[in-house]
Amino acid sequence: MERVEDNGYLTDYPNGTNAVIGDSPETMTAIYEEQINLVVVQRSLPDEIAHYCQELVDTKPNFNLRLAINPEQAAESLTSLPNLTGHAAFVDDLVLLVDMYSCLFDLDEVGLRLQVLDRAMCPRFHIDRLGCRLVTTYQGPGTEWLRNGDVDRRKLGAGNMGLSDAESGLYSDVTDIQQVNKGDIVLLKGEGWYGNEGLGAVHRSPFITPAEKRVVVTMDFA
After folding, report:
1. In what order do the strands lie in the sheet with 202-204?
2. pTM of the predicted model, to two decimals?
3. Which of 19, 167, 177, 205 would suit a FRET pair with 85, their CA atoms being 20 to 30 Å apart?
4. Which CATH number characterizes residue 51's domain?
């Protein structure tokens, strides 16, 4: 059985479990555990951030920002974001994420991308060939992922033989698909992490309807 420790995350991982889910920032340190390739910090967003994201979608439907940010200058770098209702709260949250991510991996620079999306950018389950990516969905449905024990990695990429994820045998049942919530902080360990070759977190962008928009932030090692 999984056990919740005082530090806020799950331990005693059953066979096939590769994820740690908690509600404390300290949960993020579990990404350094060898058997873990995905960490979720569950959280709720304040109304000010929801208002900001909705106005961003309404006024800047194609917004796409890429920045290489020095963590010590994050606030200054992000004040240029569109000045909409809830701007200060949104910037403060991004600064917090940059600080958490850079401290976790001892980074002098963070590659940040903020996008408004009207479609799934990565609709197929896949792995990233990088160290570890942070993803947070501020508006819309969150990232979908598969536990190690529920995925047949031979069916990733060309191994799907032209079939959809649902048809290829990548997973057995739709109930195997896990999904994070809006606002959750997700760490996805990739194939570029030392010793993690062949064990990158399997994930994809969620399907969204034509009427939906997502506001998504990703952070990478710059």
Report:
1. 178-179, 144-146, 202-204
2. 0.91
3. 205
4. 2.60.120
